[in-house]
Amino acid sequence: MSQPTRRQVLSSLAVGAAAMTLAPHVRGQDAQKKLGFAIVGLGRFGAGQLLRSLPECKLCKPVALVSGHPDKAKQLADKYGIDSANIYNYENFDNIKNNGEVDVVYVVLPNSMHAEYTIRAANAGKHVMCEKPMAINVEECQQMIDACKKNNRKLAIGYRLHYEPNNLKAIEIARGGQYGKLRQVVADHGFNISPHEWRTDKKLSGGGPLMDVGIYCLQAARYLSGEEPTHVTAQTWTPKDDPRFKNTDASMAFTLKFPGGTLATCQCSYASHGISEYHFMTEQAYGRLDNGFAYGGITFLLKDRGKPSMLDLPNINQFAAEMDAFADCVNNNKPSATPGEEGLADLKVMMKLYEAAESGKTVAM
Amino acid sequence: MSQPTRRQVLSSLAVGAAAMTLAPHVRGQDAQKKLGFAIVGLGRFGAGQLLRSLPECKLCKPVALVSGHPDKAKQLADKYGIDSANIYNYENFDNIKNNGEVDVVYVVLPNSMHAEYTIRAANAGKHVMCEKPMAINVEECQQMIDACKKNNRKLAIGYRLHYEPNNLKAIEIARGGQYGKLRQVVADHGFNISPHEWRTDKKLSGGGPLMDVGIYCLQAARYLSGEEPTHVTAQTWTPKDDPRFKNTDASMAFTLKFPGGTLATCQCSYASHGISEYHFMTEQAYGRLDNGFAYGGITFLLKDRGKPSMLDLPNINQFAAEMDAFADCVNNNKPSATPGEEGLADLKVMMKLYEAAESGKTVAM
Questions:
Q1: DSSP per residue over B34-83, as a string?
Q2: pTM of this structure
Q3: CATH code, residues B165-313+347-364
């Protein structure tokens, strides 16, 4: 598998954007093979979102589960018609290489385990989808890319919004030029986190809200501009008296500067009322996506040279869309719109954001 | 006149906030003297907003004009029933000290002239209102405060949103505690500036969009938190090929960190589709003011622990409200909610923001 360049990825994304506004699923899917997915990690997201969505896919089906909780796995296997012989735990996971039903392994573990299980899955001869953040540092991302490349397996990161009609329309408007150049991105994502979550345990999460919700703000700035930032600033806040934040920050505010003249201001928090929205301005248009990063309920307000309208785009099953898109890539040996390189690019910026926050300096990329 | 402390100013603002939700104008105004206002500078703002609004005031009336264009001044004097003997130019302006009809001088000149005309007005024995930014550096702000103090005259900066019901309600929610502590402020203000404006001539403006529209974002963060930032970051963008931006930047993105745990991300631009909005999150509430910095059309979306509602607060004449509030201060020797110290506080931060942008460092206040 040849690794796509950033330009190729953007190009495939732009093509995807045009196609997605016609229909949320991939073309020619009736003639394609339905791929077997193994879900690794059966928490809220793996079970509640991915497993729930697989029956809605055109090109994917659930065939295996990997979990440390055999009872839970058995219950879910029964619910989704999965052969209980296809339940693995973390010790015997590598035996999945002998399971011809499994084409794709989807890794939905705590961030610090993404690299290990992606690499083990690739070494077992499986294509891999991995949740974001791809890993907890740049080196791990590169190892994951290398492992998939060595095994000639495809790798995609679970950036579901690259397959979501409202976000794709925003990209089209921001990059298309018909409203002039992109000038500003303003993105905000946060919520009040519960106590004792692995996401606030730095060993498992790799960092604070940036790794989990702030990455969406960074993504928005990157996919709207279609560029990589050149300079970043960041400030964090860590309360002294809140037991939720023993080894991560609670909030981060950051700015990104892009070579084409776009500035982005982003904020993320684990300690505020819920928010999931962004807006952007080109020279001649304003777009705002309320619930822009959410699983559904996204609305799109566009002001075209001051004139407002609500765009009426569908809210689709984003998980089904991203998994079907990956299956299409595997079946037809096409590059993913969200390959490992996309995850690596985010981690590069995120590490610089932590450096900026810690050093008190504007950091050049 | 004793200068109010920051705490007193905030306290008067908070009291004002409660009162303003009952009625937009000051109390007991029927019994008060109607003060004579001289408008210095008859541009779009001085003529189009302030002069137009004075007839709507309960405690103020237009009595004099100061302009370098005698024909324009005569025309406006006739329109607003001002004695043409009360038209001054910039040379004979100091003669205004002999004019007993003039109680208040309102300075609406380019930023770099604010200090000179405020000081001359105070030395002429007049109370002074001055548009924001108060001046183009901290030293000038202090000189203006000192001149008014020396002459025992009151000084207020034209921060109209401190007298605006939606913004006052936002302050009440952000600081009141009933929704928990304030965590985030996200503010954005910008538009596409016309060529050849004094606002992009640094000698007159003192800087780029921060001085003109970004100051609203800074204000929002300061009046919502009720605190002064401790650390700031900033990045600017200056296009090489746009003749509008010969000696100022076109856009700035900045972050502010406050001692109580609030982070603010702000953006301002002279090169984007128009925007004037902010939102904020406490622990338990989300508030968004669309058109939040505008002269009218402000809407307020509140989410109370997730439950959304539109607050139905009036859009008042903000200019009439701020001038009546100042007249009330003069008549009753009360401190202004927006004294010179408020303008000085903004300039202190703005100078640090330019320092942060230029040095590439997070700057401590």
A1: PEEEEEE--SHHIIIIIIHHGGG-SSEEEEEEE-S-HHHHHHHHHHTT--
A2: 0.92
A3: 3.30.360.10
Please state, as a whole number, how many other Cβ atoms lie within 10 Å of the Cβ of residue A68: 12
Minimum mean pLDDT range among B21-30, B119-128, B339-348: B21-30
A184/B265 CB distance under 8 A: no
The C-alpha of B224 sits at a distance from chain A's nearest C-alpha, in angstroms, of 15
Q: Which residues pair with B155 in a beta bridge?
A: B128
User: Tell me: the pLDDT tens digits for A191-237?
Assistant: 999 999 999 999 999 999 999 999 999 999 999 999 999 999 999 99
Give the DSSP H or E segment for B327: helix B318-332
Torsion of CA B223, B229, B233, B239, to 10 degrees: 30
Q: Do B273 and A186 touch (CB under 8 A)?
A: no
Work out whether strand A285-290 and strand A299-304 pair parallel, antiparallel, or are unpaired.
antiparallel
Confidence of residue B29 (pLDDT cuts 50, 70, 90): low
pLDDT value of residue B28: 64
What superfamily does domain A165-315+347-364 belong to in CATH?
A: Dihydrodipicolinate Reductase; domain 2 (3.30.360.10)
A216 catalytic? Reply is: yes
Closest Cα in chain B to A241? B261
Q: Is A141 exposed, middle or buried (0-12, 13-18, 19+ CB in 10 A)?
A: buried
Contact status, residue B181 vs residue B284, Cβ threshold 8 Å: no
Predicted complex ipTM: 0.91
Interface of A with B in 156-215 (CB under 8 A): 179, 183-184, 186, 188, 190, 192
Considering only CA atoms, which of A95, A123, A91, A121 is closest in space to residue A108? A121
Domain residue extents for chain A: 6-161+319-340, 165-315+347-364
pLDDT at B115 over 60: yes
Distance CA A163, CA B61 (A): 60
Closest CA to A163 of A360, A358, A352, A327: A327
- pLDDT band, residue A30 (cuts 50/70/90): low
DSSP assignment letter at A21: T
Phi, psi (deg, nearest 5) at residue A360 = 70, 30
Residue B322 has pLDDT above 90, yes or no: yes
pLDDT digits (tens, 9 = 90+) for A305-357: 999 999 999 999 999 999 999 999 999 999 999 999 999 999 999 999 999 99
A111: contact with B, CB 8 A cutoff: no
Give B33: exposed, middle or buried? Use CB within 10 Å, 0-12, 13-18, 19+. Answer: exposed
Q: Find the mean pLDDT for residues B210-234.
A: 98
B6-161+319-340 is classed CATH 3.75.10.10 = no
Cβ pair A327, A104 in contact under 8 A: yes
Residue A249 buriedness (CB in 10 A; 0-12 / 13-18 / 19+): buried
B263-273 pLDDT, tens digit per residue, is: 999 999 999 99
Residue of B179, B181, B182, B184 to mutate, testing the A interface (most A Cβ within 10 Å of its Cβ): B184
β-bridge pairing B271-282 and B182-192: antiparallel
Q: Which residue has the tokens 């920051």?
A: B6
- Report in angstroms the alpha-carbon separations of B161 from A123, B6, B184, B224, B323: 62, 18, 19, 12, 12
Tokens (6 digits) for A277: 């929205």
Residue A359 in this model has a pLDDT that exceeds 50: yes
Cis preceding-peptide flag for A229 (omega within 30 of 0): no
Amino acid in the structure at residue B181:
K
